[in-house]
Amino acid sequence: MLDIVVPSPGESITEVTLGQWHKHDGDWVETDEVLVDIESDKATLEVRAPAAGVLRVKVQSGADQKVGAPIGSIDTAAAKPAGGAATVPATATGNVGAKAPAAVVVATATATVISDATDGKKASSLAKKVAADKGVDLAKVTGSGTSGRIVMADVERAATAVSTIANPVKPVAPAAMPMAVAGARGIRREKMPKIRQRIAERLVQAQHTAAMLTTFNECDMTEVMRLRSEHKESFEKHHGVSLGFMSFFVKACCSALKRFPKVNAYISGDEVEYHDYADVSIAVGTDRGLVVPVLRNSELLSFAEIELAIRGFAAKAREGKLTVDEMTGGTFTITNGGIYGSLMSTPILNAPQSAILGMHTIKKRPIEDPRNPGQIALRPMMYLALSYDHRIIDGADAVSFLVHIKDCIEKPERLLLD
User: Fold this and answer.
1) Cβ contact 318:124 at 8 Å
2) CB of 360 within 8 A of CB of 343?
3) Which of 45, 168, 318, 386 is the one with CA 20 to 30 A from 196?
4) Residues 325-370: pLDDT tens digits?
5) Spatial distance between the Cα atoms of 76 and 78, rounded to a whole number of angstroms
């Protein structure tokens, strides 16, 4: 027997939560085949088979385990069965249970049983876990991810559709209305994922340890929108990625960080740690919480390289594939609440960083036309918010930093002229 142990997802992580088992107890597995997901407070990782053999599952999905703890084993002495699949005893319950029959959905008065088959479709690990929890048959789900891959949002939509079909709305007589309303009241409890626990811990820590203050400004997006519209098609044709607003703001922040180095620094004990590079963290929203993958040496990246990196991070974040290394070590953060329609907000610091820029939705507002002083014109405007640690950054530096970004966005040729 060869033990399967919990690997270390990264430095300082000592405990993980066992996620979805992709193989059942008694299954034949090949070397390097994905067996189970583990979820830490920073990332979700896959545990692969160290050798070929018959899988023996020891720990159920959802259990908390220490790094290095055995969660299963592989019987390397077992013979590979004909057809490549091991026989699972009908009485085996194990920690995963015997495979369901080929029939995909069997509805009863008390439960819904599904098979693990996906009919050849690819699905993310998180999508499989949610499907198992909600009783969704992945073989009947249409994927919206890359190459038709099934992601969690697809499973959620399918679960809602199944619920609506299984529980249609029935007419309620007036006399029965109070009973129906009372019956609709319910509560449920779910264990908070480790990544959500970690997010909560860091947000509270930032508010308790930093002298946090936020300064606001607004910028006219006319020129950036004009450039984007004019070159979007050729940019995408040449680089294979769309030209978005984020690359402009990353470049503007790198320029501002170079001019105001305190904004790019940390407080470490009684010292200030300065950085001569800009590792910009980009906040990405996922169903499991907000993650902040890092663009290393952003000051050296081109617009296309920034857009490609962000697109890659977003895809990996949706599938829970970001690594711990990809989410640690940033020196400054940008978060874009505008994609959700936020008009204004006060972002919380991403400790130990000293500042974070908040972007917001673009709205046309009447302002003085810069081309015709004294005249009012409707212009596409965005509110910007810079939250900063007042212990290291003075108000004058924070305001000047934000004005520098505003100038770069309103006159994007400044980014080309450095």
Assistant:
1) yes
2) yes
3) 386
4) 888 889 999 999 998 999 999 999 998 999 999 999 999 999 998 8
5) 6
The CATH number of domain 100-170 is 1.20.1290.10: no
Class of the CATH domain delimited by 1-95: mainly beta
Q: Which two tokens stand for residue 208?
A: 């308790």
Residue type (1 letter), 173 = A
247 and 254 in contact (C-beta within 8 Å)?
A: no
CA dist., res. 271 & res. 266, Å (int): 8
Does 282 score more than 90 pLDDT? Answer: yes
> First and final CA of the chain: distance in angstroms?
62
DSSP string covering 43-104, please? -EEEEE-SSSEEEEE-S-TT-EEETT-EEEEEETTSPPPGGG-PPPPTT--TTT-PPPPS--
pLDDT higher than 90, residue 273: yes
Q: Which of 60, 51, 14, 19 is nearest to 37 (CA)?
A: 19
Pairing of strands 355-359, 376-389: antiparallel
Tell me the C-alpha distance between 382 and 180, whole Å. 46
Is 194-417 assigned to CATH 3.40.50.300?
no
Whether residue 408 contacts residue 414, with contact meaning beta carbons closer than 8 Å, is answered with: yes
**Catalytic site includes residue 390:** yes
**Distance (Å, rounded) from C-alpha 182 to C-alpha 177?**
9
Stretch(es) of the chain classified as CATH 4.10.320.10:
100-170
Active-site residue, 220 included: no
Options 32, 275, 394, 397, the catalytic residue: 394
